[in-house]
Amino acid sequence: MAAPNLMNMFAVPFAFGRHPQPSALNAALKQRLFALEASGGATNPRPLTQRNAALFESHFNLFRDPDPAIQELKAFCWDQLLAVIGRLNGYDLATLTRLQIYNDCWFHITRRGGFFGLHNHPNASWSGVYCVDPGRHDADKKDSGQLSFVNPQLTSVMHIDAGNARMQLPYAPHVANLRLEAGDLVIFPSWVLHDVKPFEGEGERITIAFNCWFTLPDDAHPTNAATPTPATATQGS
Question: What CATH number is attached to the domain comprising 155?
């Protein structure tokens, strides 16, 4: 008798990309981000999610900064994001070029002991985190600075026995812990709960994050915005 077919009936898509030449870009990004932090005018004026003084969070307008490194990263992130959206929605290139991207973008500079509490990103469909510098983790702190995603199947642990105790992701209810390296990008649905574990190490853990939401204008009702391209889609707000 043949074994039954196994399929994923419900799934949460995550995408992982990597900048092809991150060293020069990240060096320039660090210079700009440290300058913004030191300026005193880039701090998030209305912090909501739990964090401590060892973590600096910027305002949410980073991708509007004309700095060349910031704009290079934006183009990379949009290229990766639109590839994911196109694949999951079945959009062709012509449709992708009509998408209008609206976004928030900010950065974190985390020093020893800094953390960021559990949260998600309301009023957005896709979010992403790019690692500029992971910092230098203490050898005995394996969880230092990990980006941790709560599995939406968490309630399935209501009953554990020999029939499900050893399942692995994507079937198990495990939390997914990521240790991003410099140049890594992770893209995920904005509703997924996540946090950043305390950074225990030397130097700084530096990340740039974004939230995006979209419109798809009807060809019969053109907008005033310039026609975007997959790599440089229009920033609407």
Answer: 2.60.120.620
User: Residue 170, preceding bond cis, omega within 30 degrees?
Assistant: yes
- At position 71, the amino acid (one-letter code) is Q
Q: What is the pTM of this model?
A: 0.90
Domain presence at residue 38 = yes
Q: How many CB atoms lie within 10 A of CB 131?
A: 25
Domain extent for 124: 15-215
DSSP secondary structure string, 149-204?
E--TTGGGGGS--TTTTT--TTTS---EEE---TTEEEEEETTS-EEEPPP-EES-
Q: Is residue 203 part of a domain?
A: yes
User: SS3 for 87?
Assistant: helix
Residue 169 in domain:
yes
Residues contacting 15, CB < 8 A, separation 6+: 80, 83, 84, 186, 187, 188
Specify the range with the lowest mean pLDDT, choosing from 90-94, 171-175, 216-220: 216-220
As for how many domains the chain has, the answer is 1
